[in-house]
Amino acid sequence: MGLSDTKSANGVMVVRVEGQLVVGNRNELKEHLHRLLEKGERRFLIDFAQTGYIDSSGLGALVLLGRKVREEGGDLRLSGLNEDLRSLFELTKLDTLFAISETPDQALATF
Amino acid sequence: MTAPHTHPLRLCVRRTPVPGEMRVVQRVALKVPSKVDCIEEAVAVLTRHCLSGAEASSRVQFRLQVALSDALANAIVRGNREDADKQVYVQVDLHPDAVNIHVTDEGDGFDHASAAETLDPGSLDSPSGRGLFLIRHMVDDVHFNTQGNSICMTLRRR
Known about the structure:
The structure holds two protein chains of two kinds.
Chain A (H helix, E strand, L loop, with lengths): L1 E6 L5 E6 L7 H13 L4 E8 L5 H16 L3 E5 L3 H9 L8 E2 L2 H5 L3
Parallel strand pairs in A: 2-3, 3-4, 4-5
Antiparallel strand pairs in A: 1-2
Helix pairs in contact in A: 1-2
Chain B lengths: L11 E6 L6 E10 L5 H13 L6 H22 L7 E8 L3 E7 L26 H8 L2 E4 L5 E7 L2
Antiparallel strand pairs in B: 1-2, 2-3, 3-4, 4-6, 5-6
Helix pairs in contact in B: 1-2, 2-3
């Protein structure tokens, strides 16, 4: 899994995930966002346009990150989920926990 | 910090006669070390082989990947407790219309009958407890052996 960051014009940290988010690498994403939180970032968009699948540990990591960011007074939103991933979020009701947009641009407009 | 996984996983592929029938099935076997950083590669290798040469939708591929990843994670983390001396054994029988996947660990097993089949609405914010739920929804049929250390998942190709 690869991670890359860009900061949007309206100050949202956009984290792009390249590859699968699974039990073997979920801590990389957690540690990455914790470092950004320590640097003072509070508004995050995680984009999964380059992700094929996420397992239950990956979903759990997102739940923990969402909780952590909210505790810090921030906001964490998601974009780029393929049709199967979208159905996975609906199945687990996590679509009620996260604001999910089709594209990063659409998500950034909601912050 | 555990050492990264460096050795490629090797599939063992055999054509095996079906008892009492005239046909053979292709049987794929893979031994996976008890390290979570082996799971993604194991899923990739198994998915590539299970779905090659057959018409399978991207939805079937997605379901196979999620179910395999969670079954391997359960076997390695909960079953073998990441004990480097233990292995996880995957056996896949490739039928024309379905794949049967057995994932077996060397642990003591668990009481699968007591595992909840639905998600607790009150634990939506919980970081764990979705593995078996996801497996049951990704595949068409799930069975466990009596000991509870082996899961058999059936996924139809369409």
